[in-house]
Amino acid sequence: MSVLMRRAKSADLEAIMRLERATFVRDAWPEQAMRREIESPHGYYLIAVDDDADDDERRLLGYAGLLAPSGSEQGDIQTIAVAPFARGIGLGRGLMHALITQARRRHLTELFLEVRADNPIARALYDSLGFEEIGVRRGYYQPDGVDAISMRLAVPPAVTRPAAATADPRGRG
Fold first, then answer.
1. pTM of whole model > 0.90?
2. Which of 44, 45, 63, 126 is catalytic?
């Protein structure tokens, strides 16, 4: 499997909604809400597909979305989902890194998200990326009444450093 990440388009909505409904069985987003998010100039939605599959049958491996209103210094990770057969290979982490990079490009200083209190895998991912718990929203996820853990990330600056020097000034080493 070769993973390709790219910006989501309206044409991807059907595949995104299949994964959305399979992942979030009882609290999936309505299709129209997802369409608005993907088409919004304030949104940045990515999909990950299996680039080795034929063009006609590229399998959706995952998706993730960022809401970053123009002129704001704050953004929200709206959603992220990884297909069960693609879990455990770092795809969720890759999608999150891409959203954080986009947040930096949009000059955001903070990112927020909510995660189900009963999802320890997602919580561990967000912790490892530097998100910190800032509160609890009781009964946020409906219809199950599951609490949401609110988290915040101070968007880290880009890390830049000069390329390593080589013996040959033409870079041949």
1. no
2. 126
